[in-house]
Amino acid sequence: MNFKIYGKNAEAATALVLKRISNIESKMSVNVKTSEISKLNAKAGVSGQKLSEDTYSVIEKSVQYSKLTGGALDATIEPIVGLWGIGTDKERVPSKTEISDKLKLVNYKDIVLDKKNLTVKLKRTNQAIDLGAIAKGYTADEVKKVLLNNKISSAIINLGGNVYAIGSNPNGKDWNVGIQNPLSTRGEYLGTISVTDKSIVTSGNYERFFIKDGIRYHHIFDPKTGYPAQQSLISTTIVSEKSVDGDALSTSTYIMGLDKGLKLVESIKGVEAIFVTKDKKVYVTPGLKDNFKLTSKEFTYEKGR
Ligand code: ADP
Ligand code: MG
Question: For the whole prediction, is pTM greater than 0.85?
Answer without folding.
Answer: yes
